[in-house]
Structures are given as C-alpha cells and as structure tokens.
Specification:
- By secondary structure, this protein is mostly helical.
- It has a domain at 25-94.
- The protein contains four helices and no strands.
- The chain has helices at 13-19, 36-49, 57-72, 78-94.
- Helix 2 (36-49) crosses helix 3, helix 2 (36-49) crosses helix 4 (78-94) and helix 3 packs antiparallel against helix 4.
- The termini are far apart.
C-alpha cells in the first residue's frame, strides 16, 4: 500500500516566511542593511507594533533575526554575518539584555 504523495514545498519557502511572517511586518530589505543599529531598531519597532506576535517583542525580533541568519547560513559572507551578529547584540542592548560573551 503506498502512502499519499505530499505536495512539494516551494523551493524558497524561507524567503516567503521572511517576507510574510505572521508575527512581524518587516521593512523590506532590513537584513541587507549595513548598519547593525538600524537593523536592530527596525526589528524592535516591527515587533512592538505587531499585534499578531505570540511572544514578547524581544523574543519575536530575535527569533526573526536568528531565522534569517540560520536559513541564509552558508550563503552569508563573513562581513554580512558579522553585521547580523552585531545586530543581535544591538537588539539585546535596546531591550536591556546582557550581550553575549565572546
């Protein structure tokens, strides 16, 4: 007996999640910006303005940033990854959380 065939997922499903997140309305291109402070501020503003998020604003913003970094993964240059990691620290600072060690 064969199992029912599942429909194929779109090849770029993570791009669609980033674009149309149910939790946050992101400014288009926010993850391409060169300023970690601006990225963090935009994520904070999006998280605090959202009425659809299921977690606290800090957690929603950090989750979206982590999702992007993890999905882009091997395609990020060292410079781009460093900028996004710095944005994580800036986001922590905006919410009065301790910076990561290292």
């Amino acid at each position: 007996m064969s199992r029912p065939h599942k429909p194929a997922r779109p090849a770029r499903w993570s791009r669609e999640v980033t674009r149309s997140s149910d939790a946050l309305d992101l400014v288009p291109g926010v993850f391409t910006w060169d300023d970690p402070v601006a990225i963090a501020a935009s994520l904070k503003a999006s998280a605090e303005a959202s009425r659809r998020r299921k977690a606290a604003p800090f957690r929603s913003a950090m989750s979206m940033l982590n999702f992007y970094v993890n999905r882009a993964g091997g395609n990020l240059t060292a410079e781009r990854r460093a900028c996004l990691e710095a944005a994580k620290d800036e986001l922590r600072m905006l919410y009065g959380r301790p910076r990561r060690h290292g």
